[in-house]
Amino acid sequence: MVKKSNSLKQLALQKFKKNFWGVFCFIYIVIVGLISVFAYALAPDNSQYANQMHLAIHSKKPGFTVKVLTLPSELKTNQSLIDKLFFGKINANTEVPISSYKIENDTLRYTEYSSDGLTGNEKLLSLNVFPKNTAEAFITTKKFILGTDKYGRDLLSRVLVGARISFFIGFVAVFISLIIGVFMGSIAGYFGGKIDAAIMWIINVTWSIPTLLLVIAITLALGKGFWQVFIAVGLTMWVEVARVVRGQIISVKEMQYVTAAKALGYSHFRIITKHILPNIMAPVIVISAANFASAILIESGLSFLGIGAQPPMSSWGAMIKDHYNYIILGKPYLAIIPGLCIMSLVMAFMLIGNALRDALDVKN
């Protein structure tokens, strides 16, 4: 007869596996994480920040197809394969959308693409600018699955690359909040007295300031940028973690295993890190999942206000800011698509937080 493990970890894992929405959201979050890491390998436009602009084809509907002429540049770019994979390709070539072309002797005659039924400019180009005079090899047909934005950039590529900021800000912000929150909460709950009163005063003052206002103040102090937003969001989320950790430590520090550890002469650091924290991490894990969702929403709000990730960096919040006017101009999908991405990712973290809460509840 095989004896089943009755450890709390095994029981929690078994309960989590039975939660359909928890498992579904976990798989979804893993997929989004992989997309954010390998965004440039998946995006049709693998240039840096997916920022290849074609103003002639701006705001085109999903499924739009056009011929594109690539004019090779003499500027050489030295990029490693890893750099291209994770940070995008430095594109020195010029891309021109065209409606038609014809090769006559040593000349390429092409007509630039023009929307609204207008006829574009007709231009002549010597075949000598192309390696081995192979002009047709530099003319490709591009299909924009989700259409193009108001600058003529591929919307699908911008969405994929924008997932990186929204996803990683959750990790960085939660990591920062856990370090500060667990440290402050542990000291306040374990030692109590004046130390607890001082830390609780700091927590209450920080908590009384509106989160978005505090993030804006920190962002303005650190400057606008990618990492500044990550740090600013993380520095505003530690108070919730600290209060939870403090409350949990107060409730367990008088238990027998803590008293036994003190009697054996263990240091305060060892008692907190080796004996108390491992036994109170369940609610901290749950609140971290909720903080993931909060960090994504805060970053989106900052990008919408223009103080988050700066152009040309792709961000879901910035995409909504650029295109919310198109909701009343007959092309609402330009703002709805990144909005749905934010909503689905936030919902996934909230549902997985609920699933973790149920799985880690020892009373059920």
For the terminal residues, how far apart are their CA atoms? Answer: 26 Å
Total helical segments: 14
- Rg over alpha carbons: 27 Å
Spans of at least 5 consecutive residues with low confidence? 1-5
CATH superfamily of the largest domain: MetI-like
- Count every beta strand, where a strand is a DSSP E run of 2 or more residues: 5
Content-based structural category: alpha+beta
CATH fold category name of the largest domain: MetI-like fold
Which term fits the overall shape? elongated
The first-level CATH class name of the largest domain: Mainly Alpha
Give the number of domains: 2
Do you know the CATH architecture of the largest domain? Orthogonal Bundle
Percent of residues in beta strands: 5-15%
Q: How can the largest sheet be summarized?
A: 5 strands, antiparallel
In spatial order, strands of the major sheet run 4-3-2-1-5
Question: Helicity level, as a percent range?
Answer: 55-70%
H-E string = HHHEHEEEEHHHHHHHHHH
Keyword list:
MetI-like fold, 5-stranded antiparallel β-sheet, membrane, single chain, elongated, transmembrane helix, 364 residues
Brief characterization of the structure:
This protein has 364 residues and is α+β, with helices and mostly antiparallel strands.
Write the layout of secondary structure elements.
Layout: H1 8-18, H2 20-37, H3 39-42, E1 64-71, H4 81-87, E2 94-104, E3 107-112, E4 122-126, E5 139-144, H5 155-191, H6 193-208, H7 211-222, H8 226-236, H9 238-252, H10 256-263, H11 268-276, H12 281-305, H13 316-323, H14 333-359
Antiparallel strand pairs: 1-2, 1-5, 2-3, 3-4
Helix pairs in contact: 1-14, 2-5, 2-14, 5-6, 5-8, 5-9, 5-12, 5-14, 6-9, 7-8, 8-12, 9-12, 10-11, 12-13, 12-14, 13-14
Keywords: Cell membrane, Membrane, Transmembrane, Transmembrane helix, Transport
GO biological process, one term: transmembrane transport
Transmembrane segments: 20-43, 165-191, 198-220, 226-245, 276-298, 333-356
